Amino acid sequence: DTAVSQTPKYLVTQMGNDKSIKCEQNLGHDTMYWYKQDSKKFLKIMFSYNNKELIINETVPNRFSPKSPDKAHLNLHINSLELGDSAVYFCASRQQGAWGYTFGSGTRLTVV
Amino acid sequence: AQRVTQPEKLLSVFKGAPVELKCNYSYSGSPELFWYVQYSRQRLQLLLRHISRESIKGFTADLNKGETSFHLKKPFAQEEDSAMYYCALEGSGSRLTFGEGTQLTVNP
Question: Which of A110, B31, B50, B85 could be a cystine partner for B63, CB 3.0 to 4.6 Å?
Answer without folding.
Answer: B50
